[in-house]
Amino acid sequence: MNKLELMAVLSKENGLKKSEARAVLNMFFSEMADALANGDRVEIRGLCSFYVKKYKSYTGRNPKTGEKVKIPPKKLPFFKCGKELKERVDYK
Questions:
Q1: Is pLDDT at 62 greater than 70 in this prediction?
Q2: Beta carbons of 75 and 54 less than 8 angstroms apart
Q3: Cα–Cα distance for residue pair 6/57, rounded to 1 Å
Q4: Within this chain, do residues 44 and 34 fall inside the same structural domain, yes or no?
């Protein structure tokens, strides 16, 4: 399912106009991205959580030349699946 399909389901199930559903989804994803950018954790109970993992700088190598390269510190978002979602996907 992509964002357009999610928007269509949201508008159909709740009687919203497509523009209203788009606004709701954009607001949701924007707030979630802002929270992660601020280093906060986003948790959606029963579904998943998102958090930011911090990496220190390290020395890497350019695979083409073999030259040593300093990799700057970075932050990356991570997704962790919730227990209920795992059980629902692996339902037997």
A1: yes
A2: yes
A3: 38
A4: no
